[in-house]
Amino acid sequence: MPLKFPSLDKVTRSFMIEEFEIRQQELPTLLSSFLSDEGRQKYPTLVKEAFETFDAEWLLKELQPFLLSPDDTSKSSLASFYKRIQMFVESEFNRYYISGICRIALNEHITEVVVCSIKPLKKNDQISREKRGTKIVVDTLLNELRMDRPVEASLQVPLGIAASLRARKSIESHTNLVNWTY
Length: 182
Prior knowledge:
Elements: H1 10-26, H2 37-53, H3 56-63, H4 75-107, E1 112-117, H5 126-131, E2 135-137, H6 138-146, H7 151-155, E3 165-173, E4 176-180
Antiparallel strand pairs: 1-2, 1-3, 3-4
């Protein structure tokens, strides 16, 4: 099921690209062990194109021709391999989406973002249910995302949970909480 990033606008997308460019200078392509030489060369361009115009699902589709085959090509192993790649691509798209939200919040002098869902939660996903609505300090979250910590660690949830969570900015006004979701 595709991830939902409501109101993924040009401003958020431009910050996602900026954050990716900053991070690319510091880190090698994390997918490099799964990509062919041509795939490693095209990866930055494809990521920027996905951030500028498309989504994680599009990026995954565009990367598929450049994926190296795993050593074990049994049906279950291949399914597991492609699931790991899908989770990685979705997690990275989410990382930059959250970074973009943090950058917008900082520009608007908003100090906290709120954790919310990006896809329907499974019935037994109690941790995600409990985490929704939690506020996280923008500076802290952005710095953690930039340190290449897993998105889960940045959102303070167990590994594997962040695939269903994202952040949104919030502004408290006198008596009520007004939320914008990007």
